[in-house]
Write a structure and sequence with these properties.
alpha+beta; eight-stranded antiparallel beta sheet; two-stranded antiparallel sheet; 24% strand; globular
């Protein structure tokens, strides 16, 4: 998950970060996970091929006792916007948005749970920025719920950049690349097998010119998505979830929902199983071909749609009676969730490659999961219907 910042379709097909690529999610991101490190480089010359190798020395994040007003630097000399502390900058407004979303989602989840409380860890980075990780574990309703935000400055090696932005694979020279990444990433795992897991991740990412290419233009993009992963299908729940996503998309462009719904189905694909992780939602990444202000507003709308899309479903299903067999099936589906996040999620990959905060990167994983040898649900059963929908994605809105 989590890199909470970078999440994306070509990867886990999800990734914001670990924060899930942040995450940076995202993508599955997957929570998200933004790299929490600074790179110090030392140059060594090879006596064999005279090539230059860059070694990255990682400085880990530092715990802090109080949440700062902002994780942004006092100034950002290289930024096109000038001072990043300016309340009107995209960086500042995006940070404000993701922190407000974290607060509102955590408040809503605690109300639904009726007992569990989020544990909060705040951390900063020597290279700039920091994050807030919140986890509710073993509550009345939620087995594990993580909601993370990250606002990070740093320098990434080329292999990490390729994990974050594979579309540029052929155009990256060797050399460290300065970046800024911010995102919110969350994965929520309820106890009741009839209440679905949900993941969301929204992020903003910038890169400066590589150190060996002065004068190259700064690049920026938005990414994110919200997707549903139930163990059992209640069609009215799935339609409700998708209708809220469509409503958020339609406020900006009627083509967004069908485009991002398909992107989501394609991204959360477990190749070695031949099935999707869940029943989809929306997913997008590397978006920078629209007006920046529009994409900021769009990301905000999508992030604010999580509560109305998900909370009514959990309220409806959290107390549904279930058997040991229902619970075992839920655990098997969570095994699929683990497989996707660890094998394919771009956010998780990015976070691990950049030495990110491991608890944030892996917060997307469920507290419990199960793997049975050669398990095959009975054809026509409710379990089979779920698996069939994961193998053959459906159009839930007509």
């Amino acid at each position: 998950m989590l890199p909470s910042i970078l999440c994306s379709p070509s990867s886990s097909s999800t990734s914001l970060f670990p924060f899930n690529y942040f995450t940076l999610y995202s993508p599955s991101s997957s929570l998200t996970n933004l790299p929490s490190l600074t790179y110090k480089t030392t140059i060594k010359k090879s006596t064999h091929n005279h090539s230059t190798r860059v070694q990255a020395m990682i400085e880990k994040e530092t715990p802090v006792t109080q949440r700062p007003y902002t994780f942004l630097r006092e100034s950002d000399e290289g930024g096109a916007e000038g001072s990043s502390s300016n309340a009107n900058s995209v960086r500042a407004r995006f940070e404000k948005m993701i922190r407000e979303v974290q607060d509102s989602v955590c408040t809503a989840l605690e109300e639904v749970d009726g007992g569990g409380k989020f544990k909060e860890d705040v951390w900063s980075r020597p290279g700039g920025g920091g994050g807030i990780s919140r986890v509710l574990q073993d509550g009345n309703v939620f087995e594990k719920a993580g909601v993370n935000v990250s606002v990070v400055y740093g320098v990434m090696p080329p292999e990490a950049y390729r994990a974050a932005r594979p579309v540029d694979n052929g155009n990256v020279k060797p050399g460290p690349i300065p970046f800024f990444a911010a995102g919110v990433s969350s994965v929520l795992h309820p106890k009741n097998p009839f209440a679905p897991t949900v993941h969301f991740n929204y992020r903003y990412f910038e890169t400066d010119a590589p150190n060996d290419a002065p004068g190259a233009p700064r690049q920026w993009w938005f990414g994110g998505g919200t997707d549903l992963t139930p163990a059992y299908i209640f069609e009215e729940d799935v339609k409700h979830f998708h209708s809220v996503q469509k409503g958020a998309c339609d406020k900006f462009d009627a083509s967004f929902y069908p485009r991002f719904k398909k992107w989501c189905d394609d991204y959360f694909y477990i190749k070695h199983r031949g099935e999707r992780r869940g029943l989809g939602g929306i997913f997008f990444d590397d978006l920078n071909d629209y007006d920046q202000e529009m994409l900021l507003s769009f990301s905000t709308e999508c992030a604010n749609s999580v509560i109305p899309a998900y909370i009514p479903i959990v309220e409806k299903r959290k107390d549904t009676p279930f058997t040991d067999e229902h619970k075992a099936w839920q655990q098997l589906r969570r095994g699929r969730y683990v497989e996707f996040n660890l094998v394919y999620d771009r956010g998780t990959t990015f976070g691990l490659k950049t030495g990110g905060r491991i608890e944030s990167i892996l917060v997307s994983l469920p507290l419990t999961a199960r793997w049975e040898y050669d398990h095959q649900p009975v054809e026509g059963s409710e379990e089979w219907k779920l698996l069939d929908a994961c193998i053959n994605p459906k159009e839930w809105l007509h």
